[in-house]
Amino acid sequence: MAGSAERIDLTYRDDLLSGVIGAHELRLSIDVPVSTSWARGTCGGAAIDARWRIGSNYEAVEVPARLEASLGGGRINLSATFSLHEIKHPSLVGATVGGEVATGVVSASVVPRGRDGRSVMIDGQWGDVAVAITAVAAVRMNDVGIMGTVGGERVAILAERSWSDYGTTHIRGHAPGPIGLTLLMAIGLLYFL
């Protein structure tokens, strides 16, 4: 599915992520954070089907992850290896991400930023688009955000969980670039809340 995402205004509640990404209406059934699961729905009328598996940090310091998805007929195949300090201690040392999307190869490195363990820097390529972002989780874990650039344009996304509204999470911001990448960033924010 081609197109730029730009404006993001999403709500996640009761395993449903809904709202708008750019000019596209999104309805996605998804259960996060779960290590092995699936997501199904539509974005702008285009079908979304995704499956992922994230290894256990209780078994090895090199934790594998895999995502296979289709978005409007375009394939997204990603694999990653997360390196942890030690088994059962999920403090990130770094990660590598590789794979393919319709516009080419995906390649990225992930490194922790700061000593608090609440932020990471991600640098790489999503097909023909350069990505340089930082993801930051708040101290109380009620909000998490992404800032940086995608394709040389500014990105700013914030996810906030409201416990007074039964754990509903709102994801809002601006993210020009491929819709598949923007959707992955939004779901990533849900995963780490």
What does this 3D model show about the protein?
By secondary structure, this protein is mainly beta. The chain has one domain (4-191). 7% of the residues lie in helices and 68% in strands. The protein has one helix and 14 strands; from the N terminus they run ββββββββββββββα. The chain has one helix at 179-191, and strands at residues 4-13, 16-21, 24-30, 36-43, 46-54, 62-71, 74-86, 89-101, 104-112, 119-126, 129-137, 143-150, 153-162, 168-178. It has a 14-stranded antiparallel beta barrel. Strand 3 (24-30) and strand 4 (36-43) form a beta hairpin. The chain is globular, with a radius of gyration of 16 Å. The two termini are 27 Å apart.
Please give a handful of descriptors for the protein shown:
globular, 7% helix, 14-stranded antiparallel beta barrel
Topology, pairings included?
Layout: E1 4-13, E2 16-21, E3 24-30, E4 36-43, E5 46-54, E6 62-71, E7 74-86, E8 89-101, E9 104-112, E10 119-126, E11 129-137, E12 143-150, E13 153-162, E14 168-178, H1 179-191
Antiparallel strand pairs: 1-2, 1-14, 2-3, 3-4, 4-5, 5-6, 6-7, 7-8, 8-9, 9-10, 10-11, 11-12, 12-13, 13-14
Short description:
The chain is mostly beta strands and 193 residues long.
Largest sheet features: 14 strands, antiparallel, barrel
Given the C-alpha coordinates, what overall shape results? globular
Query: Could you give the order of strands across the largest sheet?
Result: 1-2-3-4-5-6-7-8-9-10-11-12-13-14
- Number of domains as seen in the coordinates: 1
Q: What is the CA-atom radius of gyration, in angstroms?
A: 16 Å
Total beta strands: 14
Enumerate how many helices there are, as a single number: 1
Task: Give the mean pLDDT.
Answer: 90
Strand content: over 45%
Low-confidence stretches: none
Q: State the separation between the terminal residues, measured CA to CA.
A: 27 Å
Helix-and-strand structural type: mainly beta
Listing every helix as H and every strand as E from the N terminus to the C terminus, the arrangement reads EEEEEEEEEEEEEEH
Residue share in helix: under 10%
Oligomer: single chain
